[in-house]
């Protein structure tokens, strides 16, 4: 392998294949490290992640990452790469992609990618994504003051009542946004919330504002925001709810026979006699 | 002048087979100068390397037969690559041409884009190294071009290969510039029709023109006029007065890209290749390329009128050139200052439907105009007047105000030879201004203001609309606009307030009707407005009230229409009957349908004669 290291870039040649890497490219430092260590053989796997991705459920065709034969847009490829570089599991991304396919609007799917180009919208373990929302101090929505956005609440309206025209900047629907937009929207002692959105519930991303806000028909309030979440992956609040709900449900039934019991007053199952 | 020039030491394990130094004593100085030459280095280098590839393929005769391969950098592989299948760079050419600034093999031909002898090195305006792999007759030459120390091109590998002749250039890209490279590639190849294989993206578009007439093509897109010099886009010289004087300026603002194809060498191109040189010679040539609008319009009209023999011939001609006719800037004159301009009617310089006539300070008549889709134009009323302009204006204004929400076009009889659109064909009438009533002069505007405020107050206090934001109540237009709502809109109230708040003069008479359907209907009928609203505007084709156009979405408009039909089913029945009648006439005389689709007056006249003739024969 031949190389030239320059202040702004490095250039490699391996078996007639030339690779040029800009200094701003994440691979630059890693390759230089290997050169300094004299491990030239270990440079090749660093140059292309395509092989590594192919082993983990993706395909790389003509330089584009594919899942199930569908090409991923670059904003999602970037996320795949982030996950890869951070050794994170790809399942959430695959779930995200599967859920996105359930979104009936082609425009919404395309514009969602634009939204996700902004920083601070991690994917959750359930394949949803995090966005931000400004509400009043009492967690009621700023517009009508009627919707309760308390932590843990799932806020939902009928999809048919959300304006799906992206050319309408302000219109009917539940609005979530990037952190910068939400901060700009909040006034006085308003609160900023982290909300979890299923990609299938995205109805429109208005073309104005550079794709920094969107109208959705459902979201779950995760927490009061503590600032931009820069991690690529966070645990889904929906999943937590499911587990909680499961536990709650199990609390009310006998684990042996499944009949209904009340653990606060009963120690043994009236049906099978098993210990509760 | 002291120029900051620091030699860069490079770390390398390369033992080049041969090292060729750039034929300039201080290459970094040259690069420094060149990098300042480019206002948009990324755009320029992308264009240079793609065009170089194209030139090489033209030289080899493979252009258009074999796709050039362009790798657009993405997050997975932030490297820009161009692989052409041209002649390749022989070692000799590399030594004598490629490495030398100012050397070019393309200076004596206009079939290739290059010629300055700097484009091949334009990557240095962005980075300090790039790879060049040349495939020539079964031999692969791998070069590394760099700016270390003296800078130069190192031949680091020479091996046998089975790959086709050609060159591959690869440039490492900063991840933050990925999007800009994408845009640069898109801009470069947007108007190319030859096959290109893209790697790293599947969203680059090679556009097809909507229509092509001679050396002019119309593409969808933003309003602008460009020159395509060998497929590369150059903006027109904006300071050229001839451009603004020529009627092509209308083409320029047509809502489409008007591309004028120009061969290589016609214009002098700035050495940065980013623009045309701003000199007198270029300006003169540019001027000669303009004034084409009239020519093309005449061309289309001639085609249409020459094809009068057969209906199918005329239709096919119209269809062929409808792309151009549909361009807003292309004006088909109808006589007496009236034009069809794309989908709009134009009167001299202004798009118009007249919403309001007002008197100017010196007694002249001014028309408040608004652009309107031609299919929404419902009625043209011709007027004749022997009265002074100010009286005419007042009378017409009052007359207009009585016609609730109408999109009336008022034309003086001098402009009568007009058939603007399908909705107006059968509804011509001449209005004698002298017979019109003149409104009493308003003594005070206060009561009107009070009435508006009362309505506003009532709307705001009404619980059913408390979630609406109602704007502009005090503005001249008096439209109600709804901006945001997260629950059902009270369509009834919105419709009624919209309809009844239109005429400003009538505001003091307005009361918001009660909200039950029966009472509303009764009210509408008592005001004799149901028909006024229904007959002209609620055709199935239009499906929107002209006065509803102020609402932002078609959804709202169609909902309102549905609501109003609900209030008075007779509206729909009446419209259906009209439509049926119209359809039956059209079925009998199919030329009427053609008439509504033909743009030029000549064609319309011919068709009208034919229709009239047929009708007479039938009688």
Sum up the structure in keywords.
heterodimer; A: 276 residues; alpha+beta; 4 domains; four-stranded antiparallel β-sheet; 8 helices; B: 619 residues; Heat Shock Protein 90; 5 domains; eight-stranded mixed β-sheet; five-stranded mixed β-sheet; 18 helices; disordered N terminus
Largest interface: A-B, 50 and 58 residues
Decide which structural class fits the backbone of chain A: alpha+beta
- Strand tally of chain B: 23
The count of helical stretches of chain B stands at 18
Question: Into which percent range does the helicity of residues of chain A fall?
Answer: 25-40%
Strand arrangement across the biggest beta sheet of chain B: 2-7-6-5-8-4-3-9
Uncertain spans of chain A: 241-246
Give the total of domains of chain A: 4
Strand order of the largest sheet of chain A: 8-11-14-9
Structural class of chain B: alpha+beta
Could you give a short account of the major beta sheet of chain B?
Answer: 8 strands, mixed
- Work out the radius of gyration of chain A: 24 Å
Number of DSSP helical runs of chain A: 8
Query: Ends of chain A: how far apart?
Result: 69 Å
Mean pLDDT of chain B: 63
CATH superfamily of the largest domain in chain B: Histidine kinase-like ATPase, C-terminal domain
Taken as a percent bin, the fraction of beta residues of chain B is 15-25%
End-to-end Cα distance of chain B, whole Å, is 94 Å
| Largest sheet properties of chain A | 4 strands, antiparallel
* CATH C-level class of the largest domain in chain B: Alpha Beta
Order of SSEs of chain A, N→C? EEEHHHEEEHHHEEEEHEEEEEH
Can you walk me through this structure?
The complex is a heterodimer of chains A (276) and B (619). In chain A, a hairpin with a 2-residue loop joins β2 and β3. The relative contact order of chain A is 0.11. Chain A has a four-stranded antiparallel β-sheet. Chain A has a three-stranded antiparallel β-sheet with strand order 1-2-3, with helices on one face. Chain A has eight helices and 15 strands. The longest helix of chain A has 15 residues, at 237-251. The model of chain A is unreliable at 241-246 (pLDDT under 50). With 276 residues, chain A is of the alpha+beta class. Chain A has helices spanning 27-37, 43-47, 50-54, 74-85, 91-101, 106-116, 179-185, 237-251; strands at residues 2-5, 9-14, 17-22, 59-61, 64-67, 70-71, 123-124, 129-135, 154-156, 174-177, 191-197, 202-204, 213-216, 218-224, 233-234. By secondary structure, chain B is α+β, with helices and mostly antiparallel strands. The chains are: A alpha+beta (276), B alpha+beta (619). Chains A and B meet through β1, β2, β3 and α4 of A and β1, β5, β6, β7 and β8 of B.
């Amino acid at each position: 392998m031949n190389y030239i290291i320059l202040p702004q870039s490095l250039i490699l040649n391996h078996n007639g294949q030339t690779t040029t890497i800009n200094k701003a490219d994440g691979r630059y430092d890693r390759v230089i490290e290997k050169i300094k260590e004299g491990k030239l053989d270990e440079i090749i796997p660093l140059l292309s992640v395509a092989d590594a991705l192919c082993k983990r459920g993706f395909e790389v065709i003509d330089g584009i990452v594919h899942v199930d034969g569908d090409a991923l847009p670059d904003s999602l490829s970037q996320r795949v790469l982030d996950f890869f570089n951070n050794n994170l599991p790809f399942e959430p991304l695959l779930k995200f992609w599967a859920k996105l396919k359930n979104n009936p609007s082609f425009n919404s799917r395309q514009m969602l990618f634009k939204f996700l180009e902004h920083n601070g919208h991690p994917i959750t373990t359930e394949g949803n994504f995090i966005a931000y929302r400004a509400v009043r101090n009492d967690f009621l929505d700023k517009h009508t003051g009627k919707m309760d956005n308390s932590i843990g609440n799932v806020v939902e309206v009928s999809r048919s009542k959300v304006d799906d025209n992206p050319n309408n900047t302000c219109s009917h629907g539940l609005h979530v946004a990037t952190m910068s937009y939400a901060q700009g929207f909040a006034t006085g002692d308003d609160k900023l919330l982290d909300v979890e959105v299923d990609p299938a519930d995205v109805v429109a991303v208005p073309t104005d504002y550079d794709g920094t806000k969107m109208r959705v028909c459902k979201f779950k309030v995760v927490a009061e925001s503590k600032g931009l979440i820069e991690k690529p992956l966070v645990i889904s609040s929906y999943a937590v709810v499911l587990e909680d709900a499961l536990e709650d449900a199990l609390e009310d039934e006998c684990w042996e026979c499944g009949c209904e019991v009340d653990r606060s007053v009963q120690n043994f199952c009236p049906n099978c006699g098993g210990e509760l | 002048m002291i120029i900051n020039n620091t030699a860069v030491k490079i770390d390398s394990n390369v033992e080049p087979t041969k090292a060729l130094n750039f034929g300039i004593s201080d290459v970094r100085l040259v690069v420094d100068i060149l990098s300042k030459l480019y206002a948009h280095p990324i755009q320029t280098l992308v264009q240079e390397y793609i065009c170089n590839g194209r030139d090489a393929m033209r030289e080899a005769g493979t252009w258009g037969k074999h796709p050039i391969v362009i790798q657009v950098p993405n997050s997975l592989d932030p490297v820009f690559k161009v692989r052409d299948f041209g002649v390749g760079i022989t070692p000799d050419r590399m030594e004598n041409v490629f490495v030398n600034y100012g050397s070019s093999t393309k200076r004596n031909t206009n079939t290739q884009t290059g010629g300055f002898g700097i484009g091949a090195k334009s990557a240095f305006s962005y980075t300090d190294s790039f790879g060049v792999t040349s495939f020539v007759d079964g031999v692969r030459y791998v070069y590394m071009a760099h700016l270390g120390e003296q800078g130069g091109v190192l031949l680091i590998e020479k091996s046998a290969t089975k790959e086709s002749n050609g060159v591959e250039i690869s440039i490492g890209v900063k991840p933050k510039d990925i999007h800009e490279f994408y845009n640069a590639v898109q801009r470069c190849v947007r108007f190319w029709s030859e096959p290109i294989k893209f790697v790293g993206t599947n969203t680059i578009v090679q556009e097809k023109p909507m229509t092509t007439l001679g050396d002019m093509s119309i593409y969808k897109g933003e309003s602008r006029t460009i020159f395509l010099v060998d497929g590369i886009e150059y903006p027109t010289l904006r300071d050229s007065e001839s451009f603004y004087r020529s009627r092509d300026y209308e083409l320029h603002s047509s809502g489409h890209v008007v591309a004028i194809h120009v061969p290589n060498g016609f214009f002098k191109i700035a050495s940065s290749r980013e623009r045309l040189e701003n000199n007198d010679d270029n300006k003169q040539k540019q001027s000669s390329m303009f004034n084409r609008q009239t020519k093309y319009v005449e061309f289309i009209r001639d085609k249409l009128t020459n094809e009068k023999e057969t209906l199918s011939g005329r239709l096919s001609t119209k269809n062929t050139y409808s792309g151009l006719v549909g361009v807003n800037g292309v004006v088909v004159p109808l006589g007496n200052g009236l034009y069809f301009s794309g989908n709009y009617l134009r009167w001299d310089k202004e798009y118009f439907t007249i919403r309001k006539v007002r008197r100017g300070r010196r007694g002249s008549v001014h028309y408040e105009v608004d652009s309107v889709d031609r299919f929404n134009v419902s009625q043209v009323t011709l007027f004749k007047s022997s009265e002074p302009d100010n009286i005419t204006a007042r009378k017409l204004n009052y007359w207009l105000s009585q016609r609730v929400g109408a999109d009336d076009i008022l034309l003086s009889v001098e402009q009568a030879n007009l058939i603007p659109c399908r909705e107006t064909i059968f509804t011509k009438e001449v209005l004698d201004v002298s017979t019109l009533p003149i409104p009493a002069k308003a003594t005070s505007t206060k009561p009107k203001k009070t009435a508006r405020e009362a309505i506003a107050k009532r709307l705001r206090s009404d619980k059913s609309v408390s979630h609406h934001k109602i704007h502009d109540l005090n503005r001249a237009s008096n439209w109600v606009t709804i901006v945001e709502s997260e629950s059902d809109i009270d369509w009834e109230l919105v419709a009624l307030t919209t309809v009844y708040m239109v005429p400003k003069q009538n505001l003091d008479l307005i009361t918001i009707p009660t909200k039950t359907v029966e009472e509303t209907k009764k009210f509408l009928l008592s005001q004799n407005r149901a028909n006024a609203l229904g007959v002209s505007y609620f055709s199935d084709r239009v499906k929107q009230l002209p006065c509803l156009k102020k609402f932002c979405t078609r959804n709202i408009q169609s909902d309102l229409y549905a609501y109003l039909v609900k209030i008075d089913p007779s509206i729909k029945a009446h419209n259906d009957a009209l439509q049926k009648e119209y359809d039956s006439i059209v079925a009998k005389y199919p030329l009427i349908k053609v008439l509504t689709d033909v743009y030029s007056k000549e064609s319309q006249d011919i068709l009208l004669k034919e229709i009239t003739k047929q009708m007479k024969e039938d009688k």
